[in-house]
Amino acid sequence: MELFFLVMTVVLAGAFAFVNGFHDVSNSAATAVRTRALTPTIAVLLVAVFNVAGALMGTGIVVLFTDEWVSLPSGTVGLGILLAGLVSAIVWGILTWLWRMPSSSTHALLGGLIGSGLAAAYLGGHDIADANSAIWQIILPLLLSPVVAFVLSYVMVYPAMWLMRYSSPRQANTGSRMAQAVLTGAFALGHGLQDGQRTMAVILLGLVAAGYATGSSMPLWVQVFAAVLLAGGSLFGGWRISHTLAEKLVRVDPLRGMTAQGVSSAMLFFGAVALHMPLSSTHTVASAIVGAGANQRFATIRLTMVRRILLTWLATAGATAVMGAVFFLAISPLL
Predict the structure, then answer these.
(1) The total number of structural domains that make up the chain
(2) 3-class SS at 109?
(3) What's 296's DSSP letter?
């Protein structure tokens, strides 16, 4: 039975990575396609390739996640917590795609794991997370990153405009589109580096719970598995959310689209490589787009859509926590 639950954990982790790529391809490609820096086909192929490269670049967050942030029970109970958390995150990802709402796969996964962990504790288990580590190293960066992305993107429009001060509007747009094409790959690389490690962490936690690995040892097949599934989801691209980010949220010109992508790409890299902190690519890029769009003579931000997106973000962790708890209680008789 334990081996069956381990196999199911790996399968659902792959499904989570696929839905993550499918859901988040819009984050990388939306502004570049909107400003005609790239065609949709080229943008999706670029995102898929760089998602693979990013996912294979590092495992720093995975090691912290499995060694310090999460203490999972061994055996079928630990695997059951992972299964319930994954199912809730996958369901939420599909629902928000149907609603055309950008949402954080990271928040969804953490909410699902917290909810299923609390349900396990209610049935006599133990708390799966170190409270201090969870607050300061996981939750706080995820909550603060939208604010930082908005402010940085708003401010960085000024030096971008200064660099283009002697260029004609046509030259400025052409240069910005060329930079956007490069930054699309950079953002996808950061997305793979950040989000690929979520899938790796879940699989590694499952292997540790089943006694097949230690928390500090990352099997190569896990990295390759997460990278391929993340890229596969990107190739099937959920363009429903692209319309929300590039059209219904705010209209930006190529210069501001370039600025938003540059800021969000830098934040993803800095968070993963320098700080080893998880950042949501969705929260980062959406906030950066709004920040750049706000820095215009005539603001084009649609506040109604901003409020809807913020409500979705606020509901993500709570909704997936409830689903995670319900799913764990449903499968608990089998554990």
Answers:
(1) 1
(2) helix
(3) S
Yes or no: say if 327 and 83 are a contact pair by the CB < 8 Å rule. yes
The answer to whether residues 192 and 52 touch, using CB atoms and an 8 Å cutoff, is: yes
User: How far apart are alpha carbons 105 and 16 in whole angstroms?
Assistant: 9
Task: Give pTM, 2 decimals.
Answer: 0.91
The pLDDT of residue 131 is 46
The answer to whether residues 257 and 292 touch, using CB atoms and an 8 Å cutoff, is yes
- Residue 192 above 70 pLDDT? yes
Task: Quote the CA–CA distance of 110 and 241 in Å, as a whole number.
Answer: 22
Q: Which pLDDT tens digit goes with each residue over 144-164? A: 889 999 999 999 999 999 988
295 SS3 class: coil
- Contact 322/113 with Cβ under 8 angstroms? no
8-state DSSP, 100 = T
Domain interval for residue 296: 2-334
- Cβ neighbour number for residue 233 with a 10 Å cutoff: 25
Length of the chain: 335
Which residues make Cβ contacts (< 8 Å) with residue 71, sequence separation at least 6? 126, 127, 128, 129, 130
Task: Give the model confidence (pLDDT) of 86-105 as tens digits.
Answer: 999 999 999 999 888 889 98
Which one, of 146, 163, 156, 133, lies nearest residue 102 by Cα?
146
Residue 279 CA to its chain's centroid (Å): 7
Tokens in use for 45?
A: 């192929």
Please report which helix (H) or strand (E) contains residue 224, including its range: helix 220-235
Q: How far is CA 79 from the centre of its chain?
A: 23
SS3 at position 129: strand
